[in-house]
Amino acid sequence: MQVHTKKHPTETAELRFIGPIVNIARAIESLKPLGFVDTSDSFPWRDAYPECSEEQLIGKALAGARYREGLTQIKLAELTGIPQRHISEMENGKRPIGKEMAKRFGKVLNISYKVFL
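The structure assignment produced for this chain is given below.
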């Protein structure tokens, strides 16, 4: 059974690489002609929401990671074994995400579990 999810078209992509620090400038310059922009001067995402509490920020991170993977709360609940209502409460900052839950989310959402702690 297919799960209905809202999916917006993506026009851009973010690339991340690991390599020798001495080659950073060359790598950046070689990607610019292809339309890529250096965002190394960006700031932490948490700083973008100064009005939000820590619980709300973690909930936004969970909702964003779920959205990025194209999953509904129901599908995420099936994949993690966490009730959908608990996921909703976590996304809305009304329920904390413990280490065990964070590890389940991290595995399913292909992200470090530490984002949720």
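Interim note for the steering committee: The chain has a mean pLDDT of 87. Residues 54-68 form the longest helix (15 residues).
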